[in-house]
Amino acid sequence: MPGKTPNSNGGRKPVENGVQKNSKDVANDKSSAAKGKPAAKKGAKEGEDMTVVVPPSKNTKQSSVPPPADAEGDVAMEDSEKTEEELEVKVDPVTQTISDIKSNFALLDRAVALFDARFSLRALRSISSLRKRLNPDILAQVIAESYPPTSPSASVAKQLLSAIGRENVPLGRQSSGNEMEVDSEPKAQAKNGAKKDKEASKELIPEVDVFLAILVQVYMFDTKQFQQGANFSKYLSERIHSLNRRTLDSLSAKVYFYFSLFCEQLTPQAPSPQSPVVTLRPTLLAALRTAILRKDVDTQASVIVLLLRSYLLTSHISQADLLVSHTQFPENAANNQVARFLYYLGRIRAIQLRYTEAHEHLTAATRKAPASQCALGFSQTATKLLLVVELLMGDIPERATFRANNMEQALHPYFLLVQAVRVGNLEDFETTIAEHADTFRRDSTYSLILRLRQNVIKTGIRMMSLSYSRISLRDICIRLHLGSEETAEYIVAKAIRDGVIEATLDRERGFMKSKEVGDVYATREPGEAFHDRIRACLALHDESVKAMRFPMNQHRLELKNAQEAREREREMAKEIQEGDLDEDDLGGDFDGM
Fold first, then answer.
1. Which contiguous run of DSSP H or E holds residue 288?
2. For residue 181, how many other CB atoms are within 10 A of its CB?
3. How far apart are the first and last CA of the chain?
4. pTM, full prediction
5. Alpha carbon distance 490, 485 (integer Å)
C-alpha cells in the first residue's frame, strides 16, 4: 500500500535496517554490548544484516570540543565527570585546617604508645604550615569537638577557650559533617559510631592538651598579644612542671621558647634591669634544674639557650660564662639547638677576647645551620659575627663568602669593612663605620668592630714591611693617618713584639728595617693547619656516628636468635652422641660447625 514502509509488521517485532530480528538475536546483542564486544557472529552466519557499531577514535575522545547533546537532551559523560572532579577539588579551607590539626593527635598517640619522640617532632614541624591559617574560630571549633563536657580535662579546654576569647563556646559540639545522615547506612549504625567517637574523645592524653596550647601561643604571638601570651605561657609552664611525662619533653621545650619570646617583646625591653626578661630567669633556672633531674634533654638544651640569650640581651657576660662553665650542654640535643648554643658561646668568647675559641664555635654554628629558607636570618647573623672575629684574628675572609646566595646584600657593609682592613687604609675604615653604624649596632657587632682599628694599623704596617726594606716613621705616620711619630713608633714596636712583622726598629735614625722573609714550609705552621683540618674531619665523623638511629630493642632480637642457635647446636650435639645423627644427615657441614 502506498504511504507504508515495505517492512512494516504492525509494531509486533523490532526491525533494524529493514530486517526483522528475533528474540534470540536481541539477547545476543545485549550480551555482546554488555561485554563491550561487537554483535554476535550468529546473525552474520545466518545471512542477516547486522548493524556494526564503530568505536570512536582516540582523536575524537581527546578533542577539546564536547560532543553535542542527542535528541532527548542527554548530557555527555565527560562533562559530568569534569564537574564531579571540580566539586571534589573544592575543599573548605576551614575544614581542611581542622582536619590537619586533628591529624596530629594520632601522631601524639603513637608517640606515647611507642615512646618515640620522632612522632612528636613531626607534629611540631606541622605548626609552620598551620600558623598562617589559625584564627580563634578554628581553634575554638577544634577544642569544642575534641573535649566532651564530661571529660576530666574539660577545665583545660575552658582555659584554652578563655585564652582565645571564646569562653561561650560549648564543649562537645560536633561538626556539621558528623550530623549528616547517609542514606546507605542505617540510623542505628550512625548512632553507634557517634557513641564510639564520644567515648574515644573522652580520654585525651596531656600531649594533645599541650599541643593545642602551643597553637594558642603561636596565634597570640602572630597577633601580637604579648601580655596575654605571657600570662597564658606562665599558666602552661606551671601545668607542665606538675606533669612528669617523658613524652612531653619536646613539647615543653617549645612552650618555654614562646614564653621567652613573649617576655622579650614586653616593655621595658632589654637591656633595662626591669625588663620581664630578667624576671623570667628564675623560672627558666627552675625548669633547667627539673630537666636535669628528669634527664629531659630537649627542655634542658632549649632552656640553656634561652638563658644565654637572656644574659646577652642585658650584657651580663660573666653570668653567661658561669652558666656555661657550670652546666653541660647535652650531646644528643637537636641540631637546631646545638647551632644556637654554639652561636651564643662564640659571641661570649669574642667579647672575652678569646678569638680562637670564638672562631671555632662560630664556624661550627654556620656549618650546623639549617639550609632551608626559614633559617636564612640565623645563617646571616652567624656569618656576620664570624667575619668580624676573623678580622680580629688578623685573617682576611674569602671573597666567595660574600658571593653566596642570599648573602651578598646582607654582607655588603662587612665587605667594605674587609676591604678597608685588607688594604690597611684607616681613613676608609673610619668612613665605613660612620656610614653603616646603624647596621652594625643592629647586628650587635659595633663594639667588636671598634676593636679593629688596631688591626687596620697592624695590617698597614705589615703591608709596608713587605713593600719596603726600610721606611721612616714619618712616612708611616703620613700613610696611616697617625697623630705623631711617637704613636707610630709605639705601634711598630708592639707589632714587632706580637710577631705581626719581622723587622727591627732604629729609634735614633727614626726608621723601620724589614728582615728577609723565610720559607713558611720550613716552619711548623703547615703541619699545624693540616692537623686542625684532620681534627675537624674526625669530629664530624664522630658526630655523624652518634646521630645515627637504630631500631629499638634490636639487640634483644639478636640475643634471642643467638640463644635459639645455641639450643639447636646443643640438640644436634646430643643427637650425635646418642647416635641418631651422623655426618651425612648434616649435609657435610659438620666439619665447619
1. helix 276-294
2. 8
3. 105
4. 0.68
5. 9
Closest CA to 121 of 334, 357, 406, 389: 334
What is the CA angle 443-299-234, rounded to 5?
85
CA dist list (Å): 297 to 300, 323, 333, 540 = 5, 17, 6, 21
Structural element, H or E, at residue 512:
strand 511-514
Contact 104, 123 (CB under 8 A): yes
Pick left, alpha or beta for residue 513 (phi over 0 → left; psi -120 to 50 → alpha; otherwise beta).
Answer: beta
Q: How far from 458 is each of 397, 417, 454, 480, 497, CA to CA, in Å?
A: 17, 15, 6, 10, 12
Query: Is the pLDDT at 292 greater than 50, yes or no?
Result: yes
Q: Where are the alpha helices (DSSP H) in 126-205?
A: 127-130, 136-146, 154-163, 176-179, 187-202
Dihedral sign, CA of 254, 257, 261, 266? positive
Phi/psi at 505 (nearest 5 deg)?
-115, 120
pLDDT tens digits for 158-177? 888 998 888 888 887 655 44
Q: Which domains does the chain have, with CATH numbers?
A: 1-51 (no CATH), 115-175+199-333 (no CATH), 417-515 (1.10.10.10)
The pLDDT tens digits of the residues spanning 464-480 come to: 877 777 888 888 887 77
Written in H, E and C, the secondary structure of 522-569 is HCCHHHHHHHHHHHHHHHHHHHHHHCCCCCCCHHHHHHHHHHHHHHHH
Residue 163 CB contacts under 8 Å (≥ 6 apart), including other chains: 216, 220, 228, 232
